[in-house]
Structures are given as C-alpha cells and as structure tokens.
Amino acid sequence: MTPAELAGQAAALAHKASILAQNAAGFAAQEAARGPHGAPLIDLFAVFVMAVFVGYYVIWSVTPALHSPLMAVTNAISSVIIVGAMLAAGLHGDFAAHAFGFLAIMLVSVNIFGGFMVTARMLSMFRKKTK
Amino acid sequence: MNYASDPGITLAYIVSAVLFILALRGLSSPVTSRRGNQLGMAGMVIAILATLAHPGMMLGGVGLIIVAVAIGGTVGAVVAKRIQMTALPQLVAAFHSLVGLAAVFVAAAALNAPQSFGIGTPGHLRLESLIEMSIGLAIGAVTFTGSIIAFAKLQALMKGTPITFKGQHYLNLAIGILILVLVIAFVASGGSQTLFWLIALAALALGFLLIIPIGGADMPVVVSMLNSYSGWAAAGIGFTISNYALIITGALVGSSGAILSYIMCKGMNRSIINVLLGGFGTDSGAGGPAATMGDKTVKSGSAEDAAFIMSNASKVIIVPGYGMAVAQAQHAVREMADLLKAEGVEVKYAIHPVAGRMPGHMNVLLAEANVPYDEVFELETINNEFSTADVVYVIGANDVTNPAAKTNSASPIYGMPILEVDKAKTVLFVKRSMASGYAGVDNELFFRDNTMMLFGDAKKMTEEIAQSLGK
After folding, report:
1. pTM given for the model
2. Are B24 and B36 in contact (CB under 8 A)?
3. Handedness of CA B94, B95, B101, B105 (dihedral sign)
4. Beta partners for B346?
5. What whole-number distance in Å separates Cα of residue A55 and Cα of residue A63?
6. Per residue in A5-20, pLDDT tens?
7. ipTM
8. Among all residues of chain B, which has the CA nearest to that of A122?
9. Given A54, A68, A97, which is nearest B359 (Cβ)?
10. Residues 6+ apart with CB under 8 A from A33
11. Using a CB-CB distance cutoff of 8 angstroms, which residues of chain B are in contact with residue A69?
12. Most buried one in A46, B272, B294, B438, CB count within 10 A?
C-alpha cells in the first residue's frame, strides 16, 4: 500500500466520520427538541392507548362478584400519582411546590394504605363452601 | 440529570405498571384475587422506591415525604380497619375525592416547579405540558367535588333525592365551555397562576353541579364514573410528568370505571347520558301507598307463616337489595339460610347487577356474613332457576323484581333486566311499608295470590323467621 493510497483511504474515512458526526448531531438536536424527558408525546400516547386496551380486556375478565374490590383496588393503584407528588416535595423547588407536594402525598397515602387494606379485608371474606 | 432518562428508574416504573395489571387480572376469581392484591402493593412499593432513587432527591425532601406518608398512611389504615362493609360505597367515593384533589395539587406543584418535572422553567412551560396539566387539573377538580357530593349523598349527609332546577344542563354546558376557554387562555399565557386557579374553580363548580341532580339509586353509576375520572386525571398528570407508571395505571383505572359504568347502565336499561342528566325517580312515592291501588288487596303474613312456608320448601332463593344493607341484615339472612339448610332446604342467592349502591356491593356484604361465594349467583346464571324454586325471599329489593319491566312499555323501568322472581311458587317480600321503589313504580307482584308481604324491618323480620325455624 503506497502512502498515497493510505492518504486516500484516510481521507475517505475522515469523510465518513464527518457524515456520521453530522448525523449524530442531527439526532442529538432531535432528542433535545423532544425535551429533557426523551420520550416524545406521541410515544407516551401510544403507551396510553395500548394501556386502555389492556385495561378493557383485563377488566371484562373480572368476575362481577368482585366488582367492589375492583373499585377499591383501582383506587389504590391510581394513587401511584404519589410519584408526581414526591418529585414536587423531594426535589429542589420553591415553597409552593413543596407544600403542594406534601399535601398531595398525604392525601394519596390515605388511599394507598386505605385502598389496599380495605381490598385485602374484602377479599379475605370471600370463601368457598366448606363441606 | 433527569429521572426519566435513567433507564433503571424507567424500568422500575414499567415493572410496577405490569404488577398493577396483574393485580387487576387476579380479580378474575376470588382464589387468585388475594395474590393479585399483594402484587398491586408490591407495584406501589417499587414505584415509590424508584422515585426515591431520583438523583435530585434532597435529604430534607425525603424527610418531608416520610412525614406525609406516615400521616396519610395512618389515617388510611385506621379507616380501612374500622369501616363497616355497609359503608363501603361512601368510603370509595371519599377515596376518589382524594385522588382528584391530589391531581389538582400535583398540577399546581408542576406549575410552580416545572424544572422538577423537566417541563420548563417557571413562567416558561412547554406547550404540551401546559395542555396535559390543565387536563389533569380539570378532571381532578371535577372528580374531587363530584365525589364529595356522592359521598354526602351515600352517607346521608345530603338527601339522596335529585336536586334539579331550570336551565341546569345549560349552566353545566356553559361552565364546560368556560373551562375550555380558560384552558386555551392558560396555555396561551405560558402558565398563568391566576388562570390555573380559575380553571380549578370552574371545574370544582362543575363537579358539584354534575352530581347533585343524580339520585341515590343511580349512585352505582356515579361511583363507577368517578372511579373512571380519577383514572383519567392520573393519566393526565402522567403525561405532564412523562411517567409510564402513571399513564398506564391511569388508563387501566379509567377504562375500569368506564366499563363498570356501562355494566351498571345496562343493568338498568338506561343510557349513561340519561343517568348523567339526572332527575330520575324525582317523583318517587307518587305511585303512593296501596290505598291508591283501589280494589287490589295485599296478602300479608307473619314471621311464623314465612318460617313455615320456607321450612316446607325444597329450594329457596334469596334476593337481597339495598334495604338489606341499610338494615344490616346480612348476618341474620345467613343464620336463617343455615337453619334452612339444616332442614335439608337448598338455598341460593340471586344478585341483580345494580343491587346496592356500588357494583358488587351485595356480594361483599354476603361474603362478610360468611355466605360462601359459590352459593351466590348473578342474574344471567340464576334467572332460569326461579321457576324451579318453591320460595323466593326478597329482602330490601323491589324494582329489580318488578315484572312491569317486561310487560308495561309505559313504565319508566321498562326494558330493565329483572330477576324473574314471579316464576317461583311463592314470593315472600320483606318490606317496611307499601311505598313504591326508587323508580316510583308500583310493583304488581305485591298483589299477586302467590305473594306474601312480610311487613317490618328487614333485620328484625329475618331474625324472627330464624327464631321460628329454630324451634
């Protein structure tokens, strides 16, 4: 391999590298445009729509006898909104954010403990015939 | 430094969402349900731990979180331990109101500290975040006041009768449009505090106004619907803070409540719109006492008579309704059933989908009284068995047994699926008086030859029957 060929190949590689770098910069810019969360709205929406369908099929399979515990447990799990409240209360922020976060955590904690416990209480009562 | 960009934490949220799905899946049978509930708890613990693992979590903040969880958790635990099973519907309504209010607070926190959620800086929030935030806020606020009213009605702090006035629906529509306009202005303003709280106020008023015209017996639909709203509110907040666990859970809960509302409406043969517009059963009592029925006479009997008839039967079907819950008669009913079974009588229970004040209310009460769940049947399963039953014991139910639903096209309950108790040889009706049911319709069953009315308190009457049986 002559020095000239080597130089030619090096130049070609450098050209490819620059294209890759440009692409990468483009992707990075796109990522940045999506906001710091990385997940664009449409992705979140896709997950949401799928979850609605999962919910549809799962809920129809729930036996009518357990519709009361279903309401209690859905109540408990919707309290996962505590995640938002914890970020508000636990991260650096102003007084208002901390106060609202604190109040929200308190409210949904009632639900988390109350909801799961009352569901457990209900379910513990459902017994089969003992013969 | 954003939590959602940490794949470990995101993965944990996805795991918790899957556990929630499994928790609901477990409810397909009582056998798997208890394990399901435990999976749900595990999901919640994982979601909370994942959030605590956020790199920006401050030590003081963690302290704040622990204090808040301790206070709320204690209240929740005490309430869950003490609550009477008959009071479940109002408990669930109260719980819904808390999720609604929490959604309002989280939206407010996100407005004040958008950097914590990576959605901008105060006064400069991302457009889509503002839209998502106002959806979560509005639905949350409607859920909050709506649930408070539902709670007040169920707890009898407020009369269960519908409150209606002229132009009610136009007022609601106007408030709905106002909210829409405020949301647009709020988004355009880039996140004005004033507009935020105006949306909250308007939505709080709307929640209140939406529920007051809905009567007591339509509460199963209302409670399911508010369940649904609390889910959509959570999903709205999930979008605001880009959290998969919240979005998925919100969607699950939202569709759960929607399906339950649908089942309840179908159980009454009414459209959801018809229920929501309210005013149903406003003239209850207009059907009036038996006196207005002119020449028709009613056969009434004593507890001894009822005991005699039932002990000579070979098959008895018990039909419980809201009246059983009010009288707390479920334990007495089970004792009576035990005595009958001891005499060799076959006993089954038939549950109408809208019996009680929330979906599945009767099933829980019977389970509480140690009635095995394999003796309890849903309408479709048991309806063809009434013709083979010697006695049907109707306790605290009325409209759901009324044959007018099948025969009288002018009746407000026409088309509603009913438990065909009229096919049984003898029908025993435990009732306090001849007053008509919730729908304000007379029940022709009361006047039939094979019907015997047992006038009195449901619990007392059932206990007296049990006493006579025990002799």
Report:
1. 0.86
2. yes
3. positive
4. B315
5. 14
6. 777 787 777 777 777 7
7. 0.89
8. B364
9. A68
10. none
11. 27, 33, 37, 360, 364
12. B438
